[in-house]
């Protein structure tokens, strides 16, 4: 699927975010229900990962408002608390939500919530994370196994270029075990790396927590020895920051290749400074806007055709899967900056002036 343009300015994001009350723990409302207006409920899982509050939420809200001026939007962030998310979903159903767009904290445990919605004839769209154990209307995400393969290939390419593939061990820091996307990333990475590198330590990181990733990396350094670690497969940018912090505390003068995902601003800057090797650029705008389009359509009783299906273990779910893009320093200008995900002025601090010039970012 072609990627949408990401013409997002910081000011536009702030304006869109201001549609709610600014809380990341409760529900906010925007729009006035009138005429044929429908109520659309969006549930995001946490706020530790920058993307959810900075991009997913405001982009989704803006698209809903553009498509349906008299729609009412209920928004909730569960702060990685499955019980809180259950309460939020049940509250939205009580408030008369016409469709649920659900990015589950624990995607393997929310089938009962989806069933509650089905009993009320409220359609469900799984956002970003595949819900298992029950059928529902749509799933919108990225090709997650491909994300892991790109991370694994990026790390393998970097180790090959440095001549260190067989000179030591790598550490693999995966995401939350309650997130099925994490299992897909993990599978993809192993598809590429198994049999080609030695895996010294491997972790599943609760809550995708950078702090816990830092602790895991500290454990790996203690167990394996600082000089034996030649690379780190981190499933996202936040955990990469934790791994890098641990390595700097351990006295690394330069970082071995480290992967990431989400193209967080700090990660893009780390790639330019040399602390992080690569990230995965996700077209969050396309994901959020496609989900908003589906939510509005489904709330009005329409059934848009999906280009593919995904087997969630119980049902084949109509799905929209977007393509990820691997980004190293030489690719930042032609992807992240070109699309307006960040402006050059956002990225290029005085300390990174020379690195930006070398990477063609202006």
TrEMBL record:
Endpoints of the signal sequence: 1-22
InterPro entries assigned: Bact_Solute-Bind_Prot2, Peripla_BP_I, SBP_2_dom
Subcellular location: Cell envelope
GO molecular function, one term: carbohydrate binding
A matching Pfam family: Peripla_BP_4
Recorded GO CC terms: outer membrane-bounded periplasmic space
Protein origin, superkingdom: Bacteria
Alphabetical keyword list: Signal
Domain Periplasmic binding protein: residue ranges: 40-303
Full protein name: Solute-binding protein
Protein source organism: Planotetraspora silvatica
């Amino acid at each position: 699927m072609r990627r949408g343009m990401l013409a997002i300015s910081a000011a536009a994001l702030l304006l869109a975010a201001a549609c709610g009350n600014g809380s990341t723990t409760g529900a906010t409302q925007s729009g006035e229900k009138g005429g044929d207006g429908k109520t659309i409920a969006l549930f995001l899982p946490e706020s530790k990962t920058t993307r959810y509050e900075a991009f997913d939420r405001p982009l989704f809200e803006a698209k809903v408002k553009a498509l349906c001026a008299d729609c009412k939007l209920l928004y909730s962030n569960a702060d990685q608390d499955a019980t809180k998310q259950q309460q939020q979903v049940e509250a939205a159903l009580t408030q008369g939500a016409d469709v649920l767009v659900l990015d589950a904290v624990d995607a393997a445990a929310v089938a009962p919530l989806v069933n509650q919605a089905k009993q009320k004839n409220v359609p469900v769209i799984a956002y970003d994370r595949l819900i298992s154990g029950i059928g529902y209307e749509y799933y919108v995400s990225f090709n997650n196994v491909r994300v892991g393969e790109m991370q694994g290939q990026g790390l393998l390419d970097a180790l090959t270029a440095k001549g260190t593939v067989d000179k030591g061990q790598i550490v693999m820091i995966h995401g939350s075990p309650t997130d099925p996307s994490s299992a897909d990333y993990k599978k993809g990475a192993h598809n590429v790396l198994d049999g080609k590198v030695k895996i010294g330590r491997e972790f599943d990181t609760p809550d995708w927590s950078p702090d816990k990733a830092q602790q895991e990396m500290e454990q790996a350094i203690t167990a394996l020895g600082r000089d034996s670690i030649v690379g780190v497969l981190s499933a996202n940018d936040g955990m990469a920051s934790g791994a890098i912090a641990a390595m700097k505390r351990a006295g690394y003068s330069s970082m071995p290749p480290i992967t990431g995902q989400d193209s967080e601003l700090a990660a893009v800057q780390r790639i330019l400074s040399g602390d992080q090797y690569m990230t995965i650029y996700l077209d969050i705008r396309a994901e959020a806007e496609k989900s908003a389009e589906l939510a509005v359509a489904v709330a009005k009783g329409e059934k848009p055709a999906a280009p593919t299906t995904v087997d969630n273990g119980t049902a084949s779910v109509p799905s929209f899967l977007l393509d990820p893009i691997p980004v190293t320093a030489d690719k930042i200008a032609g992807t992240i900056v070109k699309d307006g995900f960040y402006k050059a002025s956002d990225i290029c601090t005085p300390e990174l002036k020379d690195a930006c010039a070398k990477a063609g970012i202006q």
